[in-house]
From TrEMBL:
Domain Histidine kinase: residue ranges: 215-420
Protein's name according to its UniProt entry: histidine kinase
InterPro entries on file: HAMP_dom, HATPase_C_sf, HATPase_dom, His_kinase_dom, HisK_dim/P_dom, HisK_dim/P_sf, Sig_transdc_His_kin-like_C, TCS_sensor_his_kinase
Pfam families linked to this entry: HAMP (PF00672), HATPase_c (PF02518), HisKA (PF00512)
Main localization category: membrane
Organism phylogeny: Bacteria, Pseudomonadati, Pseudomonadota, Gammaproteobacteria, Alteromonadales
Domain HAMP: 154-207
Record-listed E.C. numbers: 2.7.13.3
Length: 420
């Protein structure tokens, strides 16, 4: 702001100087034409009378002829140029203002050279006053700018110090800390809001990790306890019963290992570490394979499994992973829809729907079921790792497919839409 104001004042100063010169030039040019016309139309005596009666306050006129001077001066200034060129010269007077500055030049007339000069010291005084006022304005502007800059930097530094303290608090583990925002948002508030969103995400992730840890502890506590008790009892069992008890313990250990292996596989798929064996996959053929594999399991549960196919769609993907993901959805429908339920597999183009008429999933839990190790309470009596739907979502995401859970009224409908 100081530089801008300084530039504006300098521009005004330049305009004032140029305007002063312009006005003096116009005035002198006007007087030059007047006296040249007067010399052409008047006699010498009339011309001399006109020169003598000229008012020095408006225009200083001096006529030099026959080594004599007519007008307001008793001598002709030296080295005066002819108009339009001009020259400044001082004149001493007897009044309170002893020195006057004039700007003028000579004019060719029929009766000889005539000096025309306009007083410019008053304009110079005006310029001096302008310079003084501009300097004062600049000093005031600099002082106000420094004061405003100090207050602004102090407020800015205060916010930075406060943010630094809050950052150290977050670094110490207080993840519920949030950066404050003002009623009138500025750039710092925008940054604080962004950091608060990051902290919210971090808090949610930490809560999710705690939830996963609790689920792991809950799901593995029982089989590990069984293994411990079984090992203690092996020492007291007859030799012929040891193989049977070992088989039970091995089954429990296999369940624990399956959980950890599923978690590792899920991580590799989510992080893109597992390479896909890409090939052209027909969704109609894939659904037929699924129906053939799952029909025997459904019959054991006295369930009806039907397949309806429409227009075929060819996609590029890993057939084994896609089969595993879709079979997991059908297996969940068989497990949780209950005996005697009806399960449908419907395919039309790039869309596959798997529906049942079982109890379904509550609306609030439809997003949670895709989280790791989340098993809804009604399903705790079924064996499982709680990673199935997480694996399904990870596989479909790698294939740029979308999965959506909705109510089937009654039951659950799972819609998988592939990108073509």
């Amino acid at each position: 702001m100081t530089l801008i104001i300084g530039a504006l004042l300098f521009a005004m100063y330049r305009e004032l100087i140029l305007e002063q010169q312009h006005q003096v030039e116009i005035h002198l040019e006007s007087e030059r034409i007047q006296y040249q016309q007067l010399a052409l139309t008047s006699g010498r005596q009339a011309f001399a009378a006109q020169v003598r009666t000229a008012d020095p306050k408006t225009m200083l006129v001096v006529w030099q002829h026959d080594n004599q001077l007519e007008g307001a001066l008793s001598f002709m200034p030296t080295d005066m140029p002819y108009l339009p060129e001009t020259k400044e010269f001082p004149i001493l007077t007897g009044g309170p203002e002893k020195l006057h500055i004039f700007t003028g030049g000579l004019v060719h007339t029929r009766y000889g050279p005539v000096l025309l000069a306009s007083r410019t010291d008053q304009l110079a005084t005006l310029i001096d006053k302008f310079i003084s006022a501009a300097a004062t304005a600049m000093m005031v502007t600099i002082l106000l700018t420094l004061a405003a800059g100090y207050l602004f930097s102090k407020a800015l530094l205060g916010r930075m110090v406060r943010y630094s303290k809050l950052s150290r608090r977050i670094e110490q583990g207080h993840y519920d800390t949030r950066f404050p925002t003002s009623e009138h948002p500025d750039e710092f508030d925008m940054l604080a809001t962004q950091f608060n969103r990051v902290l919210d995400t971090l808090q949610n992730n930490l809560d999710a990790v705690r939830g996963v840890t609790d689920n792991i502890a809950h799901d593995l506590r029982t089989p590990l306890s069984h293994i411990r008790i079984g090992i203690e009892e092996l020492a007291n069992k007859p030799a012929e019963e040891v193989p049977e008890n070992c088989a039970v313990l091995i089954e429990e250990l296999d369940m624990c290992l399956a959980t950890f292996n599923a978690m590792l596989s899920l991580t590799r798929i989510e992080e893109g570490q597992q390479k896909l064996e890409l090939q052209q996959v027909s969704l109609v053929d894939l659904c037929r394979d699924l129906e053939e594999m799952a029909s025997a399991v459904a019959e054991m549960q006295d369930q009806q499994l039907s397949l309806t196919t429409g227009t075929d769609c060819q996609i590029t993907g890993d057939k084994s992973l896609l089969f595993m993901a879709l079979y997991n959805l059908i297996d969940n429908a068989i497990k949780y829809s209950g005996d005697g339920s009806v399960i449908r597999i419907e395919q039309e183009g790039a869309v596959i729907r798997i529906s049942d008429n079982g109890p379904g999933i509550p609306e609030l839990d439809k997003d949670r079921v895709f989280e790791r190790l989340v098993r809804l309470d009604p399903s705790r009596h079924h064996a499982g790792t709680g990673l199935g739907l997480s694996m399904v979502k990870a596989i479909l995401s790698r294939h740029q497919a979308r999965i959506e859970l909705s109510d089937n009224h009654p039951g659950l409908m799972v819609t998988v839409t592939f990108r073509t």
